[in-house]
TrEMBL record:
It is a multi-pass membrane protein. PROSITE patterns: ABC_TM1. Residues 56-249 form the ABC transmembrane type-1 domain. This is ABC transporter permease subunit. The keyword Membrane applies. The chain crosses the membrane at residues 7-25, 56-79, 91-112, 132-150, 189-210, 230-251. One of its GO terms (cellular component) is plasma membrane. The lineage of its organism: Bacteria, Pseudomonadati, Pseudomonadota, Alphaproteobacteria, Hyphomicrobiales. Signal peptide: none annotated. Its main location: membrane.
Amino acid sequence: MKARRLGAWIAIAIGASYFIVPLLGTLEFSLRMRRDAYSFDAYRSVFSDFQFRETFGYSMMMAVLTIIFGMLLVVPTAYWVRLRLPQVRPIIEFITLLPLVIPAIVIVFGYLRLYNSSSILPLTGSTSGTNMLLMFSYMTLSLPYMYRAVDTAMRAIDVRTLTEAAESLGARWPTILFRCIFPNVMSGVLSGAFITFAIVMGEFTMAALLNRPAFGPYLQLVGANKAYEPSALAVIAFAITWLSMGLLQLVSRFQKSAPAKA
């Protein structure tokens, strides 16, 4: 028994070192910008860079918009499928899994062919149209995670009973959706939102091919031209990802302990 426990702890230590040691090495290297001394010069250089602030703010804005529009798309769809169209649920689940199978570069090239400046809907012909296309691209990438999170939260409540109770009190569909369903699946929405946020902040392919000033292409640009700043940016990106994961775990705990709202 003790040998099993020791073996398990050794396996855990090896697995943890596989992830932690490179991160510690990256952190240590990011502090070596000043000769013969540790300093935060690389971080100061990053935060003082106007392009960093611009790209980080742009990706933050795109993440918020992606979360809002993704939520407005996924929650009514999952609700309607569970309530009225359970027979098409396998089809919906298959569609939501497609972004995991189709590479991002294939998706964005398809968008460029469909929505170029010579098409019926020339979204790439203007800055606002390209931003909209990028947001839809991010929604496509985050669809598997957002839909799974919302669908899991919806399984924990009795959608039919809540709907019938609201209808018996004279509530219309918008009221049912936004005042009965949304509050009860909010933990699932937040779980999907944190994952979406992490995806948008680090995504490179779609933003680069659509020529948008996002944080992912900026990471690549700095990595190709500087030495210590890329390590600082990697640590910052790791911090953002781990913060999202921590908030996701916190929301999951609330989801298990919170009762359904009638």
